[in-house]
Amino acid sequence: MRGDASTLPPAFSLLRSEFNAFLFAPIGEEGNDTLLTVLSALARLGLDPWQESARLGLLSREKATQSLAAMIANLPNGRWAQSDVGAIASRLIALLPAKRVSAPPPRAPARGKFPKPSRITMLLIVSILSGVIYFAVTHWQPSPTVGADSAQDSASNDPGH
Question: What H or E segment, with its residue span, contains residue 37?
Fold first, then answer.
């Protein structure tokens, strides 16, 4: 598997994603005079920007605009009037690809959430651990105590005894 951008599905390739125009478009200025992009806003809301772009792309323009407008309205620190949120969302939704894209493949679970292990995986883990324990028990030999042997040797070699 090569590590370049050509190995990624087109919708998820950062270099040539069909969602780039939408994701990197500015929503507006924030309180600290920086432009907030759709990508940053979606990430701040805890959403995967590419999955959300694909989801919005599957909706009708009207429903996608309503959904994005609700997200923009929930963003703090925006220097835009709440009355402008609908127009902002409409402008941004127009940047989504005209061709409706298929839903992205399911993503790996979020950090901290692990998938349920299969029975085969659990059996493999138990087998490996059992083998390690068996090997340790059958091949364990206590090491001789250094202090006891050296004390006996020195006592037998002492000319005064």
Answer: strand 35-37
The residues, any chain, with a CB within 8 Å of residue 112's CB and separated by 6 or more, are none
Measured on CA atoms in the order 122, 128, 129, 130, is the torsion positive or negative?
A: positive
Burial degree of 67 (CB within 10 A; 0-12, 13-18, 19+): middle
Q: For 100-124, how does the pLDDT look when each residue is reduced to its tens digit (9 = 90+)?
A: 545 555 565 556 566 667 788 878 8
* pTM recorded for the entire structure: 0.54
**15/24 Cα distance (integer angstroms):** 12
Spatial contact of 130 and 137, defined as CB atoms under 8 Å apart: no
